[in-house]
Amino acid sequence: ADLGREIGEPDVADVEQAQLWELRSLQGRRSELLPQVRAVFGDDSPHGRCLQAIILLERGDRAAAEAVAAPLLDSAAPAVFPADRSWTLAAAFASELAAALEARPACQWLYDELTPLAAAAAVVGVAIAFRGAVDHHLGLLAKTLGRPEAARGHFERAVAVHDRLG
Known about the structure:
about 170 residues; mainly alpha; 2 strands
C-alpha cells in the first residue's frame, strides 16, 4: 500500500482494503477495519454497508448490523449487486451477511442465483484477494435455509476446490 501510494497507483485504497479484509478475516480481526471501510466506501455504498454490517456482527452488535443492512436485505433480491463483472464477489459478501442475519428471502434469492456458479470461485480483481469457492457461500445459504444435506454437499465441494487450488 505504501509503494502504491508512492507511485500514485489510483486503486491503492481498494486493493489495500480488499487484501486487509481477507487477512483480518482469517485473523478474526475484521472489526479493526470499520474506520477504513467507512473511509473507502462511505455510508451510501451498498458494498460498504454490507461490510459495515458484517463488522458490526463480528463486534456482537446485531441491532446495529440489522439497521445498516436493512436497505440491502429488506427485499427478496438483495440490493448489493453491481451489473458488472464483480457480481459474484458482491453475492459472496451478501451471502455471508444474509446467512448471518438469517434473512431467509434474501438467502433463497442468493441461493437460486449462485447455484449455476457453484463450481466457480469469487475473486477480487485479478487475484487481488480470494473470497473462496462459490460452493462455500452456497453452503452458508443452504444451512440458513434449513437444508443440512445440501449444505454439507456444498461445503465438501468447496473444500475440494480449495484443496485443488492449494
